[in-house]
Design a protein that fits this description.
The protein has three helices and no strands. With 127 residues, it is mainly alpha-helical. Keywords: Membrane, Transmembrane, Transmembrane helix.
């Protein structure tokens, strides 16, 4: 049989374990009910995730910018050359007398049409 001292010691140990478990349970419940601390933790976690996503976005943007710069550097030379060629052709064509002769009648027709439109609009407003 066990002695009363053994039972007492065993009970004391069980009470100590129970108090420890109860204390841990109370701390866990207190942590769950501490809304301010939970919100702060959640905000800190979100900030860390946001910084990580920002870093990834910056890297992707830099890579894309590099790709675009490379494409522009290699792709604009032919376009610039074509533009210079067209500009030279236009300047040369504008100096030719037949183009100048055609420009005057065209300008006169445009002025005549504009004058007719103005007269029609004025007559409609007055009537």
């Amino acid at each position: 049989m066990t002695t009363p001292e053994g039972d007492t010691q065993q009970l004391a140990d069980e009470i100590a374990r129970t108090r420890s478990d109860l204390g841990a349970t109370v701390e866990a419940l207190a942590a769950k009910t501490d809304v301010t601390a939970r919100v702060k933790r959640s905000a800190a976690d979100a900030a860390v995730r946001g910084r990580a996503q920002l870093a990834v976005a910056r890297i992707r943007a830099a890579e894309t910018a590099g790709t675009v710069k490379n494409r522009l550097a290699t792709g604009t030379a032919p376009v610039r050359e074509q533009a210079r060629t067209l500009q030279t052709k236009a300047a040369t064509a504008a100096r030719r007398p037949e183009v100048r002769r055609k420009a005057a009648p065209t300008a006169a027709v445009i002025a005549l049409v504009a004058g007719v439109i103005v007269l029609v609009v004025r007559r409609r407003r007055t009537s």
